[in-house]
Amino acid sequence: MNFLDKIFLTLIETTPTKEVFVNLHASSRNLSVVQDLINNGQKVLDVGCGLGLTGEYLTKKGFSVTGVELDTALAERVNNYISYEIHNKNAAHLEYEDNSFDSAIFMYVFHHIPIQKHPEVLKEIERILKPGGKMIMVEPDPNSKFDLIWDKIFFADNFYHYFDVYGKFSLIRKGNMRIFEVKKEDFSALEFSYVGEVK
């Protein structure tokens, strides 16, 4: 848990502002676009869910959300104020049954996973997705100076730089944001290549 998470957690826990944070997060991360890519009522896995704001938004929109977060302390605190369940798990070892979820969402998460670990994570997500399932991966544009500075300041310990993606997927661009929609059957063709400086 970094100091920025601690600040946001304190604000959310001590003041009646959770809805404000959820709405700001939804706007800044184009969650209405993400919502349109998945069918209402589906079972959604929010991977690397952090403060839980993506899952909270989708829960209120009628989705059945489960969150996973690698940071034990963060997962424990966030479970105290959200309306769905977060499990402390590693994305490469989820321990859910095969074909458990309709969709998996990675909201600004993949650039915090070392690129050599991507195939392992994708294999696990492929396993837990139902036939016809999909992954929604939201990532900054590699040329976004703002996001680069933000990650280097606030997430320096686990920021591995931005990447290009190759393979079969649908791509939506919104400002400095890329929204990838990848069907389960196309996971094996995905390739990642770092852009520019690499940690």
From TrEMBL:
Transmembrane segments: none annotated. Signal peptide: none annotated. It comes from the Archaea. InterPro entries: Methyltransf_11, SAM-dependent_MTases_sf. Residues 45-136 form the Methyltransferase type domain. It holds the Pfam family Methyltransf_11. This is Methyltransferase type 11 domain-containing protein. One of its GO terms (molecular function) is S-adenosylmethionine-dependent methyltransferase activity.
